[in-house]
Amino acid sequence: MKEIHHWIDGKEAKGTSGRFSDVYNPATGEVQAKLSLATKAELDAAVDSAAKAQVKWGATNPQRRARVMMEFVRLLNRDMDKLAEALSSEHGKTFPDAKGDVQRGLEVIEFCIGAPHLLKGDFTDSAGTGIDMYSMRQPLGVVAGITPFNFPAMIPLWKMGPALASGNAMILKPSERDPSVPLMLAQLLKEAGLPDGVLQVVNGDKESVDAILDNPVIQAVGFVGSTPIAQYIYERAAQSGKRAQCFGGAKNHMIIMPDADLDQAADALVGAGYGAAGERCMAISVAVPVGEKTADALIEKLVPRIEKLKVGPWTAGDDVDYGPVVTAAAKENIHRLVQSGIDQGAELVVDGRDFKLQGYEDGFFVGPHLFDRVTPDMDIYKTEIFGPVLSTIRAGSYEEAIGLAMSHEYGNGTAIFTRDGDAARDFANRINIGMVGINVPIPVPLAYHTFGGWKKSGFGDLNQHGPDAFRFYTRTKTVTARWPSGIKEGGEFNFKAMD
User: Choosing a second label site near 443 at 20 to 30 A (CA), which of 34, 256, 377, 411?
Assistant: First the structure.
């Protein structure tokens, strides 16, 4: 059985704990590798080594650090298919979706090539008589990233790119479920010229997470995962005096106005709701058609599209729409929530409970589900299902529709489909949600803007990637300088007569 270990000081480091976690092939249900789980002592040793490596890296010219990012981009493009294959085999994503996972992370690394500009300070001359004042952005030191299973390339790249380009060393604790790609990224960074020890990849479970939160050398923690864990990490990090940006769950609504192009809206809902088997924090999981006529017409268009979805392993070709969910436990939880929707009175329009894939009966595949006439008191509406389940909740008016999204505890992403510019503008201005799409179903910002949700979807005041990331991974130092006058008469450069 293949064993997966850590990446410490520029090389693979075998774990010493004797504790392992199973890494599955989600398509077959088989264990394909054993992952070594670190002890607190191993984590602390990695931090100490990173702190030593950071001193020289932090003193490196930002332009030279940016050149490492530039070479890293080239290597990511070179190994795109290799990374995507490893990602698909452990996560279950289709091959095109896996490449997209890598690509959206790569775009953040491209943005990080601009680190010299993003790290510039401010200067004021003559702030007082003979006084100049300037500020500079300096690295924090050692920082940590704790990343989720659903984007094993993108989220680590979102964390490590700005952190390293800013001059920090990073401890990356990736998900135990699909750990291979983060280790491959570390190897590529070494090839790109990153000094040994500046990036340490430590695999682990809650013991490693708590060791990160309690280690006094680590100055900041970035996390993506479920809301309860995001809140736990944020609170514990704050108690330890660390900066934290923690992103949690979502329940993203898409409002469909009566004037919307319903074919466009239905296509958008299918892609946003069922892509990646619904295992996206930006997935649309709630459709909100406005008016009974709109709802009836939308359901009529959705059903045949959903029934035609092709579900299968990533090896079945690029025409597979989505693959398995990540674990057997995730599959069981989805089925439990689907049954709760039935029990609580929702109408199951498309029933995927009996889905079976010949030859992959032990895989973690879940058929597509569509609910209609969902109400706000139902568990399938309140809970993030994280599976291929779309709920339709009918609204009698635009105000009722926007009220549903605004009153939900999560505030990650949302969308409106309409031809009415006034409605779209009002929606974008009023909605209390961090990322908004107008006729765009998954409004993930590009790398030069920031990514982050509101309410219980995000904890912390600075978001991921974009300028916010460089603010998060640096601290500002302001210098006020005055120099004594009179010494400038020491040198003379005119010709003098001979004495």
Answer: 377
pLDDT at residue 128, as a whole number: 85
- Give the residue numbers marked as catalytic: 281
Contact between 403 and 432 under an 8 Å Cβ cutoff? The reply is: no
The partner residues of 121 in beta bridges, in order of sequence, read none
- How far is 397 from 495, CA to CA, in rounded Å? 89
Provide CB contacts within 8 A for 95, sequence distance 6+: 84, 85, 88, 314, 318
User: Computed from CA positions of residues 209, 215, 217, 221, in that sequence, does the dihedral angle turn out positive or negative?
Assistant: positive
Which residue is it, tokens 């009974």?
292
- Residue 64: its pLDDT value, please? 97
d(C-alpha 16, C-alpha 36), whole Å: 8
Torsions phi, psi for 493 (to 5 deg):
-125, 10
Residues 41-67 have a mean pLDDT of 97
Which of 286, 32, 245, 27 lies closest to 143, judged by CA? 245
Apex CA 145: angle with CA 276 and CA 22, to 5°? 60
In tens, the pLDDT along 391-412 reads 999 999 999 999 999 999 999 9
Q: Where are the beta strands (DSSP E) in 257-297?
A: 284-289
Whether residue 355 contacts residue 388, with contact meaning beta carbons closer than 8 Å, is answered with no
Q: In what order do the strands lie in the sheet with 458-459?
A: 11-13, 6-8, 199-201, 169-173, 142-146, 218-224, 243-247, 458-459
Polymer length in residues for the chain:
499
| Distance spanning both ends of the chain, measured CA to CA | 92
CA distance 67 to 79: 19
- So what's the pLDDT on residue 367? 98
Measured between alpha carbons, how far is 337 from 381 in angstroms, rounded to an integer?
10
Cα 135 to Cα 169: distance, rounded to the nearest angstrom: 22
Positive or negative, the CA dihedral 469, 470, 474, 476 is negative
Given the DSSP bridges, would you call strands 369-372 and 347-350 parallel, antiparallel or unpaired? antiparallel
Count CB atoms within 10 A of the CB of residue 65. 25
Residue 209 clears pLDDT 60, i.e. is over it: yes
Contact (CB, 8 A) for 388 and 322: yes
Banded model confidence at residue 485, pLDDT cuts 50, 70, 90: confident
Answer whether 10's CB lies under 8 Å from 52's CB.
Answer: no
Furthest C-alpha separation in the chain: 110
Q: Which residues, listed in sequence order, are joined to residue 2 by a DSSP beta bridge?
A: 33
